[in-house]
């Protein structure tokens, strides 16, 4: 919801800025137009210069050069009316303009129109100079106002500006609230999609098309999720069923193989063959157990029993199991723990961590047939605690480390992969992580990192 509020707030501010910008632009445009208009008027109606240039020479009137130029550029016609009301001089005078006027006639056209011609008047030593423009070329209207009204004009302008600002802000707020009401259902629907809820958003209004697409998307996602869940459930049940079906005949094979291996009447060569059968059967049993455990860890079906224990105790117990069962001569196993690792400070499932360490040691034994030195260690790390399994064997294949770096679990199912996959999943449910790397001088090291919050 915070993201939606942020979007709406920014929309309101943007709308307000745009509205205020439009008000400012309109005011600048109006001010500029008024300046230009008033400037044109001053130049346009310089009739006084024409009046000064109208010269009477022995009863004959003529315009001098400057006045004639102004007359030609600015007016269509002109005439001079004497004190008796008669036209005593004219230039380009239209046929429908009278040649005689009374005082009343002069008063009626002096500021407005003469026979629909816009006119301007100016006093001349010999009468009244009248200049005219073509019909429908100039709009003239008389505006009068009291001194009190003129004195309040600045206040009116300021009030008008404030009213425009308030209107712009109110419009922005209204648009923001309207947008909020329209987008809120869409936002809620998007946030509910990851929760795999079936959406039923209203499909009317401006957001109706988006709401319809979200509704259809939620249906598709729910159908896909159900299919994936059914597939995963079927796979889990299949793995459990196959594991159960294989255990019984496999146990019989291992039992008979053990009896034959201990039979003194069998030749040594046949006893070696039987021992290989027993060992490989044991390996198949371990693989089935690993596969079943990996499936349970993936779907969180494995029961977790968290207790406080010491990292040193975990490491020593694993080492004791291997030493008691006997290690072949090419292999050696050592333990190194810090003093602090003896305290019960690790919150974990002891059986699963024991399984993770066992997988790592078995990995070293299996992939170094000519022998290696294995070292278990436990101590403090920067973020918590770390348990390490290190050997000086041939190390991890480069392609395996690349797959581990990409965190793509299906790619791990190779020669080393299933055991390391289980280790990584065990650490994941403990809130930690497993890091696998090769040592430049030879061998490899697997680090089980437990975060401080789990210590």
UniProtKB/TrEMBL annotation:
EC number: 2.7.13.3
SMART domains: HATPase_c, HisKA
Pfam families the record matches: HATPase_c, HisKA
GO molecular function, one term: phosphoprotein phosphatase activity
Keyword DNA damage: no
Keyword Membrane in annotation: yes
Xref: InterPro entries: BphY/WalK/GraS-like, HATPase_C_sf, HATPase_dom, His_kinase_dom, HisK_dim/P_dom, HisK_dim/P_sf, Sig_transdc_His_kin-like_C
Primary localisation category: membrane
Catalytic reactions on record: ATP + protein L-histidine = ADP + protein N-phospho-L-histidine
GO cellular component terms given for this protein: plasma membrane
The Histidine kinase domain, residue ranges: 241-454
Name by which UniProt lists this protein: histidine kinase
Species assigned in the record: Acetobacterium woodii (strain ATCC 29683 / DSM 1030 / JCM 2381 / KCTC 1655 / WB1)
